[in-house]
Design goal:
Radius of gyration: 15 Å
Number of helices: 3
Largest sheet: 5 strands, parallel
Distance between the termini: 22 Å
């Protein structure tokens, strides 16, 4: 067994519902695992690479009947929080290519995985989880 306490969390789905995840989305779980379990690194794949997109964006909200629900989690804030708390966050290069991204497309601190920056070595982690 690997003695390194860090875990690799792989996130592929960017959206899992707004109301259902209002208080505990997948990136919230990643932040808690990072905090409580000795560290976690995150690999964003598929549409989840959009969680690390830089640039201005309005706060997420949803209109239900006559009410506006504006307490939805913002994935970009969650990624920033992960970085601030010591997690390494990668976005898979092949999935970023689908969005024709440039060098400034990702939030500062998010690394491109693949190409010149290798993918994380799964065997170097205590465990690997698909969230």
């Amino acid at each position: 067994m690997n003695d390194d306490p860090r875990r690799l969390l792989i996130i592929e789905r960017a959206y899992r519902g707004a109301l259902e995840t209002q208080f505990a989305d997948v990136l919230y779980l990643a932040r808690e695992l990072n905090r409580q379990q000795g560290g976690a690194d995150i690999l964003l794949r598929g549409l989840a690479v959009t969680c690390a997109a830089a640039g201005a964006r309005p706060a997420p909200s949803l209109v239900v009947g006559r009410r506006t629900l504006d307490t939805l989690p913002d994935p970009r804030d969650s990624v920033r929080s992960l970085l601030e708390n010591g997690a390494t966050v990668w976005a898979e290069e092949s999935d970023l290519a689908l969005f024709e991204t440039g060098p400034e497309w990702l939030l500062p601190g998010v690394r491109r995985a693949g190409g010149t920056d290798p993918l994380p070595d799964w065997s170097a982690y205590r465990s690997v989880h698909f969230l």
